[in-house]
What does this fold into?
Amino acid sequence: MKILFFGLDLIAIYCIFKNILRAKINTSRLAIACSSILTLMYCIYLFTHNNSVMPYSLVASVIIYVLSNETWYLKLSWLCICSLLFTLLPMLPVLTLCMVTSINIDFMSAYYKYFDLAVLLIIPPLTILFRKKFMNHTPLLRTIGFKGYCLIIFVAVIDLFLSSISTLLFTDELSMFGRKLILLAIFVMIAMSVVLLTLYFRLQHYHFMLQQTNYINQKMLELEKQHYHELRQKNIDLRAFRHDYNSHITALHGLAADNDLFGLKKYVKQLSDVKEFLHDWNTNHPAADAIVNYFYEHLPAHTTFQQEGKFPEHIFVTDSDLCVVLSNLLKNATEAVGKQPEQDDRKIYILIYANEEYLSITVENTSLPVPQKQLELLTTTKNDTLNHGLGLKNIRTIVERYQGSLNLQYKDNLFTACAILRNIY
It folds into this structure.
């Protein structure tokens, strides 16, 4: 029976770490060997000793701590949460029955192990059942930071202390009313600490989202401002060109009459640098319009740019996530095209498709040969790998958050990047 409880504790903590926290498992031989040895030694200890000094959940927590490939404070905070959960859930019905029925705590403690067994049996299937629902909150749990995890550990230790002394209240020195009143106060304090901690992290998350939105809005304003200045300059150049139109025609006639082909080509090239109009690309999304038009205005020379498809009026992707994906795809495409010789046929093609279920953004561009290994590892050809090569990784982070995929392909001098995001809400 003792080994059964230990195994259930181990499975329950592992399911919480794997399904709720989405913790990475350390697959190194050393970690697997250490955890296996600890498990075997404790099982032998339980088999040879009638009374176990160390709690099952404590040893199980140490084993999961060794197996998890996460930061120490994240693992420690979640192990404290698991310990508090496994302590409170079986204890609550026992103490509640004692308060309601006035039954002696020693009598009810005999049934504690049955409540404990029920909790350990229920937790693993619940974590599997609610795995998808917790997926949206998993990134929030990982952005709490060191101070946040230390706060969780502090609150969990205080709640464990309160829950442990609650059983001492059922002694002959206190009246039944006094026992119930103090026990109720302890439960209220534990509930309030959990609620206040949850509200604190909620407010912290909203603050972070507001900062991110403000940052995106500032970037969009900068792009719009730059786009306006470039449009104004284009209009000035166009008016100047129209004003001097007759002079240009006269100059071209003179060069043609003198058979000066070199001078004629040079003059025509100078005139072709002035665009007759500024193309305004429309994706049906203000933030995306600013990004597409920005990169269009900064294309390398002699680059053909095309866009097909539009976003629906309401999309499930946030503006910040959409900006990260689209801007990084276009930035990589622009840099790849800029590395090609000017005489090459440079092209960038954007395909957008979206409905209520998923969003697809495909950017295809001509490119120099890209090694297959570089596609697989998402590496960069630049020397500064610390500051570059993060574009595709940032896209992959957003894609994984929406349970989508990022497909990279290079064939026949064409590099294709397709980001697919799914509606998980």
